[in-house]
Amino acid sequence: MLRPEQMSKVSVTGSKAVMDPVIETVHDLNRVHLSDYDGSWEGFDNGTPRSDADDASEKLVTVRSLESILDVDEDDAGPSRIVTDDALDEELEEIRTGANELDDRRNAVESELREVEEKIDEVEPFTALGVPLDLLSGYDTLHVAVGQGDPSAVRSVLDDSKAIRSFDIETGDELVAVFAYPESNARESILDDLLVQANFTRTDIPDAEGDAAEYIDELRHRKQQLESKLTTIEDEIDELRLDAAGFLLAAEERLSIDVQKSEAPLQFATTESAFVAEGWIPTEEVDHLKAELSDAVGNRVDVDEIERANYRDGHATTTEHVSSEDEHSGKAAATDGGVVTMNDSPPTMQENVGPAEPFELLTKMVGLPSYDELDPTFFIMLTFPAFFGFMIGDLGYGILYAVAGFFLYSRFDSDAIRALGGIGMWAGGFTMLFGVLYGEIFGLHVVGEILFDGSPPMHKGLQPAYSRYAQTWLFVSVLAGLAHMTLGYFSGVVNHISHGIEEVIYDDLSWLTMMIGLWLAILSTAAEGIKPSFLFNTLGGEGAAYNLGYTGLPEWAAFLGLGMFALGLVVMTYGEFQHMGAPGLVVGPLESVNVLVNVLSYFRLAAVLLAKAGMAFVVNLLFFGAWEDSHGAWHFGTGGMPSQTGIEYHHYEVADIMFGGLLHGGIAMALIGVVILVVGHFAVLMLGITSAGLQGIRLEYVEFFDKFYDGDGRPFDPFGYEREFTTED
């Protein structure tokens, strides 16, 4: 759908005695987007949560905490179930007690295990010293230092010091141990002061006794014990998770529903005895809502459709006011005999055809369409993959894009990633389509040789022999831009027509008139000599890539076009003057240049096409080698390379050998070439996403959306819950 489903605002009014069954009924229906009361009605206040709201919220926090502790996964849910109040008290408490006990035990074991691992890391460097740990400290007159440094530098410093009576040095793989007897009159820090001169860095001595290796063996044994304990606890936690997962997931769902229902009155307007609730619902379901509430509470509530809205600028163009006879039921009366309603615009409920749904992601990246806007998702589906496929145009790359898209779409649960996968499959499909038309697979012309006997219907235009095709794609880019932007301007007309014909004329139609007029003049043969030749000779005449008989518009089209441009400029500038005052007389003409540059922006289609073709060509050139025939066509050396120029090779006269190719340079060069081939094509594949993808998105967002799309809608979020783990009580 290009427009969201039609919405109606409904009002439910009744006494507080029936508020709870009304909440239950509306929640079960799950089709009403509640409006928030802003406190603006005299005599009405926001409602208060039900008495059970705090208890449900606390239990919900507990359930989610237990799910985190037990690492509960939705796959462990089991069949849906009913969660009773007794179960929320008794079974939840039992699970909480067991889970917290296991979590405490796990934390204690993990903490001790970390300490043991830290001690192992601390002691391990001491094993190579061969000195018992208890001999490295605890002396009165003997000074000991252990650390990292150069033993010869340490020895030299101590030898030169008159403050050291004697010393000994023990060395290991990483550490050096220094034992020194200072003179009796030496200061306490003498050893440290001397070692600083030798760039010696101290290491803390472990608080342990005995041989370091034996101590580490004890620590490792303790580590094994702790790991075994931890495994046992994890098994117990896993067992509890399997037993409790179904209940916890169902309890979370039940409590989430309870919290929703308990807090619903906060959105209502209430007095001491009555309430008013308003919300948006698809128009076709209004009668169903009335019937459900009638079954639940009879005639003790009034249900009125107060607006059936096509919203424009925040105002409903079609509104059904409630008669003044209903004012006594609790609604806020207006002075004109109608009612004051909660001032909010309709939410948007997107409904696109299945193939277009992935492209909703691209629309939402700008913003959700508001209720009165055209949804551009379908247009993106029609244009973005075509732009992308045209720019890449390669069967091999297209297959990889489609496979990657299918992988994302089928292997992930995230809606965003699945949408990216869907877009990837569409883009890959069009890339394959254009790849067949270009006759290329990974930059090689194999497809063209097989399907079209070497003459595919399209060429990218990279080769000098087919340069006319490159000019053709420049012209096609202009035509694509004109078509795309025209669609955008007409979409703006549809969006803005109910604002008034003046806005449409001053805005959308004036810009469309300027654009068409300017390009009629540009594409006419008037002053042809100063215009780019590709505007006239690519689709008609001698040497045209496709001789469709077009060689330019007649000269009179220039006068018509300039007149249209002038008319559009005057109307647009007048509109800017009305909107901005005197500055609009300057802003209008300055902005008018956009009808030229916006269309020229579509040249990026042809530019990216040639850039990606050139990158793939270079990769294949390095690996296979390439030569040029006398007609200016390039041939890759997939079946060997000619030995010299001026000979006939594969039925073509060789004019130039561009590069011999790593494949033909021996085994070593061929292996290097394989790496270049794989890495090079992977780079082209990735750059295709960042260049063709981003450039295509830019054309959609900047050139197309700018003509009509605001994207300031809010999503349709009905009051209700899609049950997955619970059944109705």
Automatic annotation (TrEMBL):
This is A-type ATP synthase subunit I. Belongs to the V-ATPase 116 kDa subunit family. It comes from Haloarchaeobius litoreus. One of its GO terms (cellular component) is membrane. It is found in: Membrane. Residues 312-337 are annotated as: Disordered. Residues 92-119, 216-243 form a coiled coil. The keyword Coiled coil applies. It holds the Pfam family V_ATPase_I. It comes from the Archaea. Component of the A-type ATP synthase that produces ATP from ADP in the presence of a proton gradient across the membrane. The chain crosses the membrane at residues 378-409, 472-497, 509-527, 556-575, 605-627, 667-689. Keywords: Coiled coil, Ion transport, Membrane, Transmembrane, Transmembrane helix, Transport. It is a multi-pass membrane protein. One of its GO terms (biological process) is monoatomic ion transport.
